Amino acid sequence: MSLYTGFCSHLLFPLHERLKGHDSVVVRKRLEESQWWPADRLAAYRVERLREFLVDIGQRVPLYRDLFKHLAFEPTSVDTLEALSALPLLAKQDIRANVERIKADGHGPLTRYNTGGSSGEPLIFYMGKGRKTHDVAAKWRATRWWGVDIGDRELVVWGSPIELGAQDRLRRLRDGLMRSHLLPAFEMSAANLDRFVDTIRRTRPAMLFGYPSSLSLIAHHARQSGLDMSELGIRVAFVTSERLYDEQRAVISEVFACPVANGYGARDAGFIAHECPAGSLHISAEDIIVETVRADGASTARGESGEIIVTHMATGDFPFLRYRTGDVGILSDRPCACGRGLPVLEAVEGRTTDFVVAHDGTVMHGLALIYTVRDLPGVESFKIEQMSIDETAVRVVAGPAFDRAAEERIVSDFKARLGDAVDIRVEKVSAIPCEASGKYRYVVSHIKTPARVLDCRNA
Predict the structure, then answer these.
(1) Are residues 37 and 152 in the same domain?
(2) Shared domain check, 154 and 73
(3) Do 343 and 416 reside in the same domain of the chain?
(4) DSSP SS3 for 407
(5) Overall average pLDDT of the 48-76 stretch
(6) How, if at all, do strands 154-158 and 180-184 pair?
(7) Tens digits of per-residue pLDDT, 348-401?
(8) What string of DSSP letters covers 258-310?
(9) What is the mean pLDDT of the chain?
(10) How far apart are CA 355 and CA 188, in angstroms?
(11) Residue 277: pLDDT above 70?
(12) 185 or 439, which is more confident
């Protein structure tokens, strides 16, 4: 660790957090201890934490006070994590309908946030200081797993309007002191890619952070430009907020000569899980309980895909209890070779809208369609949008090698998977914009699957 990194990590950033009323340093140190606890000690701690959380919101939060009474649910009797299954799931529409009733009585300062709406459902919600503290601490802990720390040079490729719209003088001063440089993921033109590559070469960051699609695009551009990025001293590339595909991991790792650390989280659900150097995606279990459920709301078995449901136990002022993330994943019961006792997400397979539905009702991951388009000559970029059970559009930015045979291949392969009766429409376009959040999604399906949701407005 350099002297300047030590100054930032041990003095400047802790002072910054203290001035904001956050206990991030204390919480991070506690998390760095608890990650090594044996499984039984961690499990007992999580049950105790859950019970305290449920008792708190059952007393202070109008929505849950009424719900617990309606269900005759007694939080003080909770003695297992599985007790959560007695409570309904919380969907975005439930938060929209009850936003004021989710705020706790006597809550502290709350900050208004909104999601980017990449699923078509933007959400307004609130965070208290406790939630922010724990998310910062969990991310900080995971960053340090990779031998980097706050104050090491960082280059961030991001697209959130919140971050990009907050670059006032104070924020720029803070980022400058912490040696963090932000590049906008919205602007991935050839000219800007040249500038991004040049910025990376000039700043020689210790770590990269961004969307997998953005960092892999920059890596491809550097490779095609014949520029060597392997001697810059980049120690790790952190990626999050999109599904990480194998080919993206490979090109980022090869071009920048560093490991890729996958992270899973969301602005609404929190900092959920992060990959360790041994390759496991560890859940931030001291604060977060992750369940996976089938479309009917029933719990899945370990190793079985299901929608990821999150309970964030540091959200007492505006609770997220059994929150439906809209993502699909698999929980593992295998310990990690790194020795940490934190539970593992075996896989995050994407959003529920990343899955497509065949005409006969069969559900399959969008990869079943992605591979056909991605591997065709002349395809520079693409997006697959399932409009309905009867219609799917494929938008392609096509180079000279993309011909009539390629179009016919898309139609025939898609019909083979989705059904011969489905109308497959191939559209050549000049560009494919990213989502409003700055993310890029290869597949979007507008077909909804049923799920159990919270409905206690008449409780």
Answers:
(1) yes
(2) yes
(3) no
(4) helix
(5) 98
(6) parallel
(7) 887 665 668 889 887 776 767 887 887 788 888 889 999 999 999 999 999 899
(8) S-EEEEEEETTTEEEEEE-TTS-EEE-TTTEEEEEE-TTSPBPPTTS-EEEEE
(9) 89
(10) 26
(11) yes
(12) 185
